[in-house]
Amino acid sequence: MQLGMIGLGKMGHQLSLNLLDKDHQVVAHDINEDALMAIAKQGADTAASIAELVSKLSKPRTIWIMVSVGDATENVFTALLDHVEPGDRIIDGGNAYYKESISRGERSKEKGIYFFDCGTSGGIEGARNGACTMIGGDQEQFEELRPLFHDLTVENGYLHTGPVGSGHFLKMVHNGIEYGMMQAIAEGFDILDKSPFDYEYEKVANVWNHGSVIRSWLMELTESAFQKDPSLDQIKGIMHSSGEGKWTVETALDYEMAAPVITLALLMRYRSQEQDTFTGKVVAALRNEFGGHAVEKN
Amino acid sequence: MQLGMIGLGKMGHQLSLNLLDKDHQVVAHDINEDALMAIAKQGADTAASIAELVSKLSKPRTIWIMVSVGDATENVFTALLDHVEPGDRIIDGGNAYYKESISRGERSKEKGIYFFDCGTSGGIEGARNGACTMIGGDQEQFEELRPLFHDLTVENGYLHTGPVGSGHFLKMVHNGIEYGMMQAIAEGFDILDKSPFDYEYEKVANVWNHGSVIRSWLMELTESAFQKDPSLDQIKGIMHSSGEGKWTVETALDYEMAAPVITLALLMRYRSQEQDTFTGKVVAALRNEFGGHAVEKN
Amino acid sequence: MQLGMIGLGKMGHQLSLNLLDKDHQVVAHDINEDALMAIAKQGADTAASIAELVSKLSKPRTIWIMVSVGDATENVFTALLDHVEPGDRIIDGGNAYYKESISRGERSKEKGIYFFDCGTSGGIEGARNGACTMIGGDQEQFEELRPLFHDLTVENGYLHTGPVGSGHFLKMVHNGIEYGMMQAIAEGFDILDKSPFDYEYEKVANVWNHGSVIRSWLMELTESAFQKDPSLDQIKGIMHSSGEGKWTVETALDYEMAAPVITLALLMRYRSQEQDTFTGKVVAALRNEFGGHAVEKN
Amino acid sequence: MQLGMIGLGKMGHQLSLNLLDKDHQVVAHDINEDALMAIAKQGADTAASIAELVSKLSKPRTIWIMVSVGDATENVFTALLDHVEPGDRIIDGGNAYYKESISRGERSKEKGIYFFDCGTSGGIEGARNGACTMIGGDQEQFEELRPLFHDLTVENGYLHTGPVGSGHFLKMVHNGIEYGMMQAIAEGFDILDKSPFDYEYEKVANVWNHGSVIRSWLMELTESAFQKDPSLDQIKGIMHSSGEGKWTVETALDYEMAAPVITLALLMRYRSQEQDTFTGKVVAALRNEFGGHAVEKN
Fold first, then answer.
1. Are C200 and C88 members of one domain?
2. Model pTM?
3. Same domain, D202 and D154
């Protein structure tokens, strides 16, 4: 198939290579010229603007947006909507908030455009060699795109999830689960680290990946991380986050349901971003007030 | 009444003063001679040893142990048990683990001694001017001690809670609740601190103490703490703990019940004791592994 | 002073009585005629419509909105804004979301109206006999209203908190703290209930209210609740919530801060609203899958 | 090799079959005669008593205990210790608490017996076809047993973890991680279940197992569970637990470290075991006290 790819960052570049490998024709655009040249060397056609990209594709066009969530996605989508024509398809492969995707689906529909929200998992390696995708959007049109998703993903690695919104929603929840699983694994190794025993963490992760109940790709990555830095001395334990975990928690709150493990996984990330907390100061001050317990001075 | 007081630390000294104020006769012992002299100046009789203290009291004796929880309590109790005689009463006013108090109650009973486990709340100020006590032990003998508890506490500030163990158990749970309440208050002020508004925390605590649902002694202490240091700049947010919170959580676990707020209040204290965590390092390393997300280097 | 009161529910009725007691002149409006008649009997003037209420007040008018949060507040505010005149003051005494209050402040300002967001705490009893209020809005105009807040509240029970929004924000956080404190207290009594001891909860709450660290109005209410129903046999443990706790948690998430105790207090409320959970089913099914552990059938 | 197997429950039976497949010689004992007969049919020799089992093995003997944790393990171990001789090896393949295993290691050492604490993961299927084992105990003797562990486990599925205690400790933490991962997965599906979308959970789990970040054996089991019962209508969400999760949490508490995700995973299991909670009753009663909020009657 022929495909337009807008956004050649970490993910977009690898997805393009993946597609080129499978003999798809890629017309790529990015505002970064180096990124454009890099993908051109690999066999992609390039476009200096969204308008040019659209003009280079035959109808009905299929255009994949792979830019940062938030303003970047909104700006690219809005610009793109001005150039595409009825019957064209836009796939947002980023991690947009599902309510925004639903709204983009409606804006697309008004113009006769088919919008697909595609959650993409598997990291950079997955983008290159076989990702996992969850796609919301028109069922009939999805059948047209099936070969594309088949080639981009590992075997059985794509699913049409329902109407627009359902793809990014599912990816959001996937990431919420990921937060919980990662924190669970990390807490486990923290307990090992404080234990009286002298475990080699790479070997622990390795044996857990062979036959145990908790064998998983995340445990394989854990093994790989400990292989590079056996006690993680070189890095700080500051856990950033990029939004999906927060959305998952907020969504659970909106449903008035308790998802404490996903929630706490998020809260501990936030806690790690603060060196000291005002919460802690208040509790320390109170202990001093009633019990005369010493406080530690700054 | 006449009372032996073993232990003249922060709490024992104030309790002794409180008793002397109410015209009780106090025979005090502490291994610290300065502490002994200080209380002697206030009108207490003193004893250089537990043996001497016991010998100075008329039968049936009433002896209050007010030393640190753990080894100190165990050592004093064991020594004391060698000197007291059938019909004497031992009150442990410290924060012993209730199962140890039950065991001390049994060891006392074998010798014909009445053991009381007395949880004491209200902080140092309460010890001096009127505490709150929860006392487990023999009901009939408790009636003999009632004037003592009446005088030591604020009006209606004492309760016979049942058999030995029930006093310290109740104090343990009291402290568990205290952990939760303190953390809740502290989190609230932390949110205020991050808000776009410019609250004066002392005034906030003050207004909350006048008519609001959360008016409480802890909020009064919060007001007092902010009066001394309006933004708590001078102290670190490291929250130590002295055992009862942990026992409360462990007890809830033994009952297979969910007490998440008390539990999290404890866990956040532990978290505050670590500058950086291995948990955080593992999560940061994993994010780097699958998403190429940057880690912060040490 | 003369005051218009819109909304004669539980809170508005009591606030009106409170104002009448202090010789303020109240013109009241409610769509419920019985409520109108009830307050008329107590000495209030009444108005059948917002327009009539406005017409009955002398300029500059002071009008207190005390209706349900959400649509009711929005509808009353919008209608009222059509009738008031520059220099008039609107006080929203309900629990609106602070961002909506900020927006109402801006809409008021465009018309030359002074808007105050007033968080009101202390429950129904407080509304009647002396509440606690936290008020955001114009400082100078607030001075004009000071006698009103003085009379409505307990001594020192009101605070001008800053610009519009700061009043409801502070009330929101107050309620977040309240959630945490209540859950902490409740978990404590739950542990007592599972203990081997046989505590009388009313007496426990009573002694804790006399000299202990956790003495508080909430503990007084706990005492009162146990006085009416010693083991709470007659009620279900379903914990509803009315929004402020959720807003507090969402606000903390927006600040990327960890407020785990307030958060868990909210999540346990949500958990209590479900008889059985899908989460539980999935875990039970998984345990069966890998360990052959029996599941309980529906 | 020749091996004695004590305990032919779900796990012991499958492990025996697994060993017989690999041409090991198994002498089995269980107090349940049906279990004995069943394994005899598969080619194992049997023993009616521990004494007989010991007498049937050539020295140095290797005996695997695979009975329930707690009293059963203690009783079997104690009986066995009376019959074995210096140089013999005892492997406890159950999930004993690591401190008890350390103690059994010491008791064994006094008699010249080599004790190994072997954590076994992988469920029943793993026991049959290839488990994952983590073994603490004497390094040199472990080399003698290596062929056994090699054959019992999947490739690379065994690890000598250090001294006695380190095997069961590692398995304990493995299970703690498992609790967290399972709860994270389950919360995710619960959010899906409350969403406006209409996901087929088996397909969701399937796609997540192909290329996503959260692909894992637990997700494969999730897929399998939904294949059998698409909406888990037939089972209740009551989550039992068998001890390791609790030990993990208690161990983290002893290290004064925050492991909130593993902890909450455990607490939600406990919560699921109660239909209604006293905690909930207290909070509901308090809301009624101060706000007049309706309670739901029993």
1. no
2. 0.96
3. no
